[in-house]
Every structure is written in structure tokens, then in C-alpha cells.
Amino acid sequence: MNSKKVKFFDSHLHIIDPNFPLYENQGYIPEPFTTSMYLSQLAHHELVGGAVVSGSFQKQNQTYLLDALEKLGPKFIGVTQLLANTPDETILSLNQAGVRAVRFNLKRGGSEDISKIVYFANRIYELSNWHVELYIDSSDLGGLYSILISLPSVSIDHLGLSKEGFSTLLKLVEHGVKVKATGFGRVNFNPVSAITNIYRVNPNSLMFGTDLPSTRAPRPFEDGDISIITDTLGEVGANKVLFQNAYNFYFQKSS
Q1: Count of CB atoms situated within 10 Å of the CB of 112
Q2: What confidence tens digit (pLDDT) does each residue in 161-215 have?
Q3: Cα separation, 196 vs 181, whole angstroms
Q4: Torsion, Cα of 32, 12, 48, 130 (10° steps)
Q5: Are the CB atoms for 72 and 9 separated by under 8 Å?
Q6: Domains parsed from the chain with CATH numbers
Q7: Backbone phi, psi, residue 53, to 5°
Q8: Which of 9, 38, 91, 221 would you label with 213, given CA atoms 20 to 30 Å apart?
Q9: By C-alpha distance, which of 245, 226, 139 is closest to 182?
Q10: Residues near 109 by beta carbon (within 8 Å), at least 6 away in sequence
Q11: CA–CA distances in Å: residue 81 to residues 2, 65, 88, 111
């Protein structure tokens, strides 16, 4: 691997602090991965910020997330899990703390039911300009396509996970949906071809992330995942995917 430091915004990471509540999910409770462990693992890169994402094993608990955002600083934002009946005051308070999205976890659960997405997505966008994030297999996108293109702001995790349904993912990308170039060890296809095709359709869509600590992934994050972006897209494209697209999305409210 090239020893040169790579500047990037980590659009997808998890913090797992046993000092805060953790909930068993499908028989699984993750090992600790604290803010200090996260920063230590990426110390050899030029990390300029990131998005701390709530996992299924954290449900709607906000204490770990607020603590993580305070420790990591203002260049990091939160993607949380909330129920659709969450009071406005709670959402506004979380927004003040740096939360910028609500996650719907269709793969593992622990989040609000997808039937509430239209109401909730429009409500949080109007209230705080938040988007919705989906952990979903692309094979399930077909039935949600018309709904997703009607929503104000959407991102999808891990390149959509599967080859089946990838054509639907590309159609969503055409409509401005963001896709996280994350979890390369989770997908059942060559990430290079997916990255190339998504970037060709919409160069503003892809946002790279480490997915650390890669809980339950068949193959965890490795530094070579960053090289996949730089080798595939070249300097200009890599800068967009590694940094600019996510920075615009989270800090400049770009759609």
C-alpha cells in the first residue's frame, strides 16, 4: 500500500462503547470499538471527519452517539435511529448535537418500520433538513423505488450489497440518491465495477466510508479499500468520492 496519507471523510463508521446500552441483535452483541480505538486505527490517514452510524444493536438509544460526537468533534455527524413519533424537540436537540439523518435498517432491524418512511422522511427534512439512510439489499429496492424517488433526501449503505437489483440502484442514483461506497467485504459483486458504473451515472452520488469496525462483515475494512477508490477513479474522481461528496451532503445540505 502507498504510504502517502490519504485525505478522506469517513461517511460510515460505528462506535461501540460498552459504557452505554447495547442490545442483542439476532444473537449478536459486538465487541467494543471506542472513539480512541477508531482514531488510532486511522491515524496514518488524513481523516477530516465522518458519520457515526447507529447500529441495530443500539436501537433508539442516543447516549453513546451524543458522547461519541462530543469526543470526535464538530467535523463528525451522527446518523441515528428514531421512532416516527419522536417529538420535534428531541429531533431539534439531536440536530444541535450534530445528528443529520435517521437510519432505516431493513437488514438487521432495530429501527423504525419502513412503512413509516414517507411520513418520517418528509417530517425530519422539513424540521431539520435531515435525510434518511437505508441499510437495504438492492434486491428489495424495486418495491420501494417510487417511494424513494419521492423523498427529499436519501442515502443507501454498502453499494446496495447485492448484484440483484443493482440496475434499480442505478436508477435511484440518476434521481440523486446517494450511495455509500462502504462495506466492500459485504457485497456479492466486484466493487470496482459498481463504483465505476455509479460514478458514471452520477459523479456526486458516491461517498466513501470505512464501515469500521465492520461488525459481522465476512471481510473487514482494510486500507486497500481506499486504494480501490483512488485506482478506479483517478485523482479528481477519488477526491469527490473520498471527501467532497460527503462533505457537501452533510455540511452544505447538498442534494
Answers
A1: 21
A2: 999 999 999 999 999 999 999 999 999 999 999 999 999 999 999 999 999 999 9
A3: 11
A4: -120
A5: no
A6: 7-251 (3.20.20.140)
A7: -110, 130
A8: 91
A9: 226
A10: 25, 26, 56
A11: 37, 10, 15, 6
CB 191 within 8 A of CB 159: yes
For the whole model, what pTM was predicted?
0.94
Complete edge-to-edge strand list for the sheet that includes strand 7-13: 7-13, 46-53, 76-80, 99-105, 131-135, 154-156, 178-181, 206-208
Hunting for cell 441499510 — which residue is that?
Answer: 135
92, three cell numbers: 431539534
Note whether 228 and 184 are within 8 A (CB).
yes
Residue 51 near residue 212, CB atoms below 8 Å: no
Give the cell for residue 217: 462483515
**Cα–Cα dist 213/165, whole Å:** 27
pLDDT tens figures, 36-78: 999 999 999 999 999 999 999 999 999 999 999 999 999 999 9
| Residue found by looking up cell 462503547 in the block | 17
Is there a contact between 25 and 109 (Cβ–Cβ < 8 Å)? yes
Residues in the chain: 255
How is residue 64 written as a grid cell? 453513546
pLDDT in tens, 63-120: 999 999 999 999 999 999 999 999 999 999 999 999 999 999 987 777 888 999 999 9
Cell 469517513 found at:
10
Q: Terminal CA-to-CA distance of the chain, rounded, Å?
A: 34
List all residues 6 or more positions away from 69 whose beta carbon is below 8 Å from its beta carbon: 52, 76, 77, 78, 97, 98, 99
User: Residue 134 pairs with which residues in a beta bridge?
Assistant: 104, 156
